[in-house]
Amino acid sequence: MAKIINLGHNLTEFNFVSPKERLDQYQEAYDRHELGRIDKLIPWSQITESFRKQGYRKGRKGPQGLFSLKGKIALMFLKSYLNGLSDQALIDRLNRDVFLQFFCDVFIPIDQGLTNFKIVSAIRCELSEYLDIDAIQEALVKKMRPQMEHPHVAHIDATVYESGIRYPTDVKLLWESCAWIAKQTKKISRAIRVPHQRSKIKDIKRAYLKYQKSRRKTYKQTMRMRKRLLALLNKLLHFHMELMDRMGVKTRDFPKAYLERYQAIMGVFCQQEHLINGKKIADRIVSLDKPYLRPIVRGKEIKRVEFGAKVHMVQIDGINFIEHISFDAFNETTRLISAVHLVRKSTGKITHLGADNIYPTNKNRKYCSENKITTCFTRKGRAGKDEKQRQQMQSILAKDRATRMEGSFGVEKNHYGLNRIRARTRNNEILWIFFGVHAANLIRFIRRIPQQEDLHKTG
């Protein structure tokens, strides 16, 4: 074993070994490290092939980047594995950590470290367009299948991975819309030398700040503020349309980002107008930056409503797989049959199924009975001759689901970057969630296997 040397002493010479021997030592240490064991477990060839089948770099020209496709995917795993690191901190860590470089299949000289931390978000945007969740999960479960102890037992449940937005209110949305439209109309007016339309935006801004600072906001105050903001937004939108007509510009000629924000504001205006008049609306917009988000009512004591992606998850032998993901609210009870099909496709069969009390509908009960699947559902009707054994199995399944599956959701959110997702687009959020879930899966799975065991046997 090499001795640890205190560099504070007067040393005149460093006895480094040859570069080849040093690389071999690093490689041996990397293979024993947790990252090295994960590297051997991941089916890189199948994952990269799934991206290429979706059209990754098809028809693109230009020089090859620093990171290969494997390295880009590995960097997304590291973003979730090293929870809490910003993109800049991740690049700084990559520059000085040789194990991370081994994992990302890249070599970065000490004197030529990466400085552009935006490369992480650029890679995330690039990969999010070609992510095939089903194909990658199929490759992962095929690799893990030989080491699963109970592949015929599954649990199902849904959770919400919240997006990184502030809690939305009608007043906040209307004021953000007014402020953005006012800023754009001012820029356009100066550009074409047209007098800016007079409005009471300064007075309304003072009233808005006073309203926001007040601790107790009455219903009367809120309605008055909403009506004032709605009237101001209506006036600003009409002036914006007049300026566009003067310039001879059509809505479709706007830049993409500008057009998306403008359409979101138009949607907010129409929805708020209907809400003030007492009408019900569908697909309610809760964020101008992320207009695809919808309020998802969960009915929990701490959070009655959550804003993010709702994911229906299937857990096989402690490993979570995404069965369905949507930014719209959906009833998870309708996904039981699809979840059973996913388990059969992954492991071949399913004999036991754990789920919470929302799943035992008559349709789901009938399906499970016809397919001889033992569940933790509360019995309906008279007890059979094996009632005692059935109750014992029901208790085991219910307890296992409540501890392992719901506990895994908390671990993913607290330790793998899924507590507040900071991605800015729909595809990026889905990519973020996917890598966070499967980074947790890989750590969970690798810690079951003794460190000295050869992971090539899992192939």
Give the CATH level 1 class of the largest domain. Answer: Alpha Beta
How many beta-strand runs?
Answer: 6
Low-confidence regions = none
**What number of structural domains do the residues give?**
3
Structural class: alpha/beta
> Helical amount among residues, as a percent range?
40-55%
Q: Indicate the mean pLDDT.
A: 88
| Strand percent estimate | 5-15%
Describe this structure in words.
The radius of gyration is 28 Å and the shape is globular. It has helices at 19-32, 34-41, 44-53, 69-81, 87-96, 98-103, 119-128, 133-144, 170-192, 201-213, 219-247, 256-276, 336-347, 362-370, 387-415, 426-446; strands spanning 153-162, 295-297, 305-316, 319-326, 352-354, 374-375. It is built from 16 helices and six strands. Strands 1, 2, 3, 4, 5 and 6 form a six-stranded mixed β-sheet that branches. The two termini are 33 Å apart. The relative contact order is 0.13. By secondary structure, the protein is α/β, with parallel strands linked by helices. Helices cover 52% and strands 8% of the residues. The model has no long low-confidence stretch (mean pLDDT 88). It folds into three domains: 19-56 and 63-128, no CATH class; 149-166 and 306-438, 2-Layer Sandwich (Nucleotidyltransferase, domain 5), CATH 3.30.420; 170-276, no CATH class.
What is this structure's SSE topology?
Elements: H1 19-32, H2 34-41, H3 44-53, H4 69-81, H5 87-96, H6 98-103, H7 119-128, H8 133-144, E1 153-162, H9 170-192, H10 201-213, H11 219-247, H12 256-276, E2 295-297, E3 305-316, E4 319-326, H13 336-347, E5 352-354, H14 362-370, E6 374-375, H15 387-415, H16 426-446
Parallel strand pairs: 1-5, 5-6
Antiparallel strand pairs: 1-3, 2-3, 3-4
